[in-house]
């Protein structure tokens, strides 16, 4: 109708090629060389046919027809009758509401039963890129944030097994949150980390979002000490990952050794970049506490 063609032309097109642009495109009405289609085209007014050909070969039209219809278009446009339309729309809305997110930080928020703001998600993503200059060490944080480590629950889903209990034999569900933070033999190490922070007079909330994702309170003082507590948390993550399937408490000595390793890597990276003094200033207090242990 927008092309100002005759009503008889519209009726012929609807009968032979469908009542929408996508159906008309798939019918190949204008290019079909069969006698039957040729007869149908002959019935159409010559000028109407030119208008239709011009419209169908336009760049904007071809882009629309080549695009696959969305689920909403399939429901609303392609259905001949309105029967069951409300039920279909309700079903689609229910699926959208219950659809699981693919964003790993949002998945962490669901596990923690918390809501992370846009700024929190940006902070976690920025933390994976800026937590350390060494890619080798940064990989530990990246794997944690991206939920890389397998758990009993994920293996059970992949292998279609019924047993999804923690591999450490505690009888709890083997989810990431439990393995990293909630398990009773992991908690002593995290408490040691926070006791070190108190020795350095750094008051940081005992929060798993800080330990696992680097999402900390928006406080100027916390920002000042970020370079100190970040390697401590990364070292703890690495130590816990080493005992992922073992029913034992992660060793404090192993954690301190991991911090010395991070310190060494940071030192040599700073030397390469000629930024040795900021590195020394950052680790000076922490080095004293580590030596005392």
From TrEMBL:
Lineage of origin: Eukaryota, Metazoa, Chordata, Craniata, Vertebrata
The protein's name in its UniProt record: LORF2 protein
